[in-house]
Amino acid sequence: MVDNVSQNPEEFLSTPLSKVPCNSELSADVYVKIGDKFIKFKEKGDLIPEEKYNYFISMNVKELFVAKNEIEAFQEAVEEQKKEEIEAIVEEVGEENRPIVELQADIKESVYEAFMDEELSSETVDILKNQVTEFINIIKDKNPSADIFAKISSMNNTIAEHSMNVANLSLLFGMSTGQTHTLVLENLYMGALFHDYGKAKIPTAVMEKPKSVAYAKAITEHPLLGVDMLKKNPQINKQVLSIVAEHHEQFAGVGFPKGMTGDAIYGLSKIVSIANIFDNVCMENRRNKATMYKTAIKVLEYDKGKQFDPELLPRILDAIKLGYGNYHRDRAKKAE
Ligand SMILES: [Fe+2]
Q: Longest Cα pair distance anywhere in the chain, in angstroms?
């Protein structure tokens, strides 16, 4: 039996937080390391809620600790949960689309790892890029119906899983508006994955005070903060950085941080900005699964050229309606 607080590193082994699924039951007590102390964070049977993941991401926490004698069983249980989640999604999308679901699970782990790292490591970006290329090639090869994108979407509103939703939506929108080249789609997907990287690193203390001046400043600056942090990494190219910088710019010039107008905004940034708003509205309305997609579609339809490029939007709306318009998430999940 390990106490609630311990200073004895001999009692623990670490396990990567990126592998521990959000909102899933923990099979052992878990600890976080603060300074040289191990502090009990959650008990066996508890869930780690999404806001804690955002906190860990902003604090660059990437490991949990489990008592040595329990670690093996804990890691096995985590693997088992991952498999169960994959099977539940495969059941919805069909066996022929299993590779899509499995690759999404791998990408999710890499995205969490990338976000939890204090500095984005080249190794993580390399792995992620390879997974993304493979994912795009599978999608191009299988050409699945648009509802696949709704079925693989996440209901966990952590910054990492929101980013994955935005990346998948952007891929669907990109292909629906005539982008076919793998390299272009790869830039689009990577830009969407990292669009809120700067926001992820805003301290929780600031994010918790949405009426403060510090919050307003951090939000205005997050696209460029993301660019500054990401550009240190040579594998993150200029196109990806443009998407991160411009994902809050609006067609009529009232966005931020620069107030760019119309076609001065990079085409792929326009796509990601639509995907971002769509997923944000879905997440805000996710308690009502019967109408969340319809509500988000309406928000886009009402735009009339203010936020979004009026030439792109109708084609994107067609794709969303095909994929999400009649989809109702009813997959069983313990935490929902
Ligand atoms: Fe953002």
A: 63
